[in-house]
Amino acid sequence: MMKSLSQLFYQIFRCFARVSVILMMTAALFALSACSRGDSDSRSATGGTAETKSETPDPNAPYELEYVDAYGEHHTATIDPALKQHPYDWSHLKRKDSDVIYEGDSSYTIRRGIDVSTHQGEIDWKAVKDAGRDFVFVRAAFRAYGETGKLFEDDRARKNLKDAAAAGLDTGVYVFSQAVNEKEALEEADLVLKVIKDAKLTLPVVFDPEKIRNDTARTDHVSGEQFTKNTLAFCRKIREAGYQPMVYANMVWEADLYDMKQLQNLPVWYADYEPVPQTPYDFRFWQYSEKGTVPGIDGKVDLDVEFVKN
Q1: Neighbours of 55 (CB within 10 A)
Q2: pLDDT averaged over every residue in the chain
Q3: Where would you tag: which of 48, 52, 53, 155 has the fewest CB atoms within 10 A of its CB?
C-alpha cells in the first residue's frame, strides 16, 4: 500500500515538474517576443533598420554643379533652382564638325549666327548669308583694359552693320566693357547708342563685361556686386533709348560674378565651348565656338545659335 502511494506521489510530482517547465518556457518566449517588438519599435522611431518613409527632396533647394571653364579648369557652382531655368532638351542636340544641330524638339528650333569685330577684317556678307548664317552681333565699341581705360568705337562697326543688314542678316551689337563703375558703364552705353543711331537693329544690344586672363587689367579688383551694378546701369540706359538690352555671360560669371537674381528680367547670350551648355539657367543665344570658320571671313570667327520658340 505504502509503495503504491509513493509511486502515485512520484507520478504527480513529475507531472507538476513538466507543467512548470512548460509554463517557464512559455513565459520566456512571451518575454522575448515582447522585447523584440519593443526593440523594433524603438529602432523605427530612431531611424534604424526598420523601414521608414523617405523624405521627398526639395526641388527649390540649392545644389552643387561641377563644370569646366573655357581653359579646361574645373569648378563647382551653387545653383539656385528658384531662378529661371532654360527649357531646352539636350537629347536633341548634336555636334557635326564645327556646327550645331538641334532637331526633333517640338518646342524650339535654332538659327545660326556669328559675332564679329574689326579683327575679322573685310567681310563678304553675301557669302556669310549664303553659308546659312542668319544673324550677327557686331562689336560697336570697346574699352581698353589698361589703367587709363580709354573708350573706342570699333572702326568697322558701322560698315559691318550696314553691309550685314543689306545681305539679309539680322543684326545686333555688343560692347567689350572694362567699366569699373556705373558712370563708366553709362559712358559705354552712350557711345554704343551713337554708333547704332542710323542702324536698324533687329537683335539686342549686349553688355559684355570681360575679365582679362593672364594680364593685369583695370577690372581685376572689381567685385561681383559692382559688375552687376554696371550691367544694370548699362541695360537701363539702352532700354530707355528704345532698344532691347541683353547680357553676355558664361558659367563662371553666373556662378561667381553676377548676382543672377537681379538679372532675371534680362535675356542672356551664354558662352560655353563644351559639347553641351553646362548652365541650368535660362539663355536665348549660345556662343558655342571661338574657332569657327565661315565662308566670306578670313580666319577664325565666333559661332552662335539662337533658340527660337516654335
Answers
A1: 6
A2: 87
A3: 53
